Amino acid sequence: MTDSQKTATLSYNGENYELPVHTPTAGPDVIDIRKLYNQAGVFTFDPGFTSTAACESAITYIDGDKGVLLHRGYTIGELAEKSHYLEVCYLLIYGELPSATQIEDFENRVTNHTMLHEQMMYFFRGFRRDAHPMAVMTGVVGAMSAFYHDSIDISDPWQREVATIRLIAKMPTIAAMAYKYTIGQPFVYPRNDLDYASNFLRMCFAVPAENYEVNPILSRAMDRIFTLHADHEQNASTSTVRLASSSGANPFACIAAGIACLWGPAHGGANQACLEMLQEIGTVDRIPEYIARAKDKNDPFRLMGFGHRVYKNFDPRATVMKQSADEVLDLLGVENNPILQVAKELEKAALADPYFAEKKLFPNVDFYSGIILEAMGFPTSMFTPIFALSRTVGWISQWKEMIEDPAMKIGRPRQLYTGETARDYVDVEDR
Ligand code: SDX
Known about the structure:
This protein has helices spanning 36-40, 76-82, 85-94, 100-111, 120-125, 133-143, 157-182, 196-205, 216-228, 236-245, 251-262, 270-281, 287-295, 316-331, 338-352, 354-358, 365-376, 383-403, and strands spanning 2-12, 15-23, 30-31, 60-63, 68-71, 74-75. It is mainly α. The longest helix is centred in the middle third of the chain and has 26 residues, at 157-182. The chain starts with a strand and ends in a 28-residue tail after the last helix. The model has no long low-confidence stretch (mean pLDDT 94). The protein binds s-citryldethia Coenzyme A (SDX). S-citryldethia Coenzyme A (SDX) binds at residues 232, 235, 266-268, 270, 294, 302-310, 359, 361, 364-366. S-citryldethia Coenzyme A binds next to helix 17.
């Protein structure tokens, strides 16, 4: 944070309050209100945090008006094209692109932590077979704090490092196991001779009865999906992880809280909801009916995969995801996929409609990801678990940044109270 000499003046009740203004390296100035309550005895009110910077961070920068997304200064477009997920993980966690030696060491450490404690298999068995994989992931990741006692002391830098590697390494194994469990197939163990994305595809789709060869184009597309979902500033699930971590809770419990928050259809659950919406629309000729419903104030229906709290322009991830969708469906010979046709026509119709233009509603990261994942053979119930797997590095990086900040305090928002003022108890016979 570069301290500017600028200040903002608040006039209230005949008093003037000078508030410091911080100048970021990018983005809007930030008015520091930390002392406002002590000085003026007032709170500010911003329930959706639309105008509130909840923390200082150097990891990810978004310019919603320009459709810009930077990870440690590198554009998501360049990273998706030239980098790969584990290198992006290194960049998000440590702040710089790794040397050849550094990335080799990092990848080896991740590879050698991909197996789960064998006893955790029994934890899965407690779920019904029709449990949603996100419910399983939330439970199993939370349970990791019961199996990995040697990496829950957040005051120990070495334990923080071990927890970081364990979470990045084991999330694909847990997600694949959650999938296998719901379809009644045996768990497939990770293989150390496979790269991160190939390992995940094999753990999901291999069966003991035959060999499984990973298609390199599909593993590249999978790796790109992981990269596109890696981190996204202070979104709802990341803010959940930060708030949970501010109490000193262990990293596994905090990441489980992030998974639970991501599950919501307004957030990470949108990719599943988006594909289900496209399937419900079914054919191109029904698109006008759904566009009308999305515009109807009395209809709660929204176009899933459209709109964003921050992007009031194209989500740059959607642009890359759309290219991937074309490549994957072309490879699989399903470029005539009816769902993809509906998606492309829906996008065209929505972008041509003044309602969406006025409200700056553009396709977001979830609009095309579901189409790729479905084409790869994933059921819609696995879309958000894959988002959670990808976002784990973002949650962990933001967690690490906060824990290592000496100024860290427990998060404790206040409120605008509109309830009853003090009143006497009334006995039941007098009510
Ligand atoms: C993710 O924060 C992140 O960074 C999240 C994420 C990440 O990487 O972590 O990017 C991932 O969560 C992407 C968003 C996925 N969600 C969806 O696709 C669900 C559909 N989208 C909407 O629910 C909505 O757009 C939100 C929740 C994403 C954003 O909501 P906002 O910014 O709070 O906007 P809003 O609800 O105040 O809507 C503004 C207006 C409203 O109309 P008015 O009340 O002003 O008349 O736009 C309308 C809304 O009715 N609107 C939509 C719409 N989204 C907003 N109308 C139709 N379809 C939609 N999708």
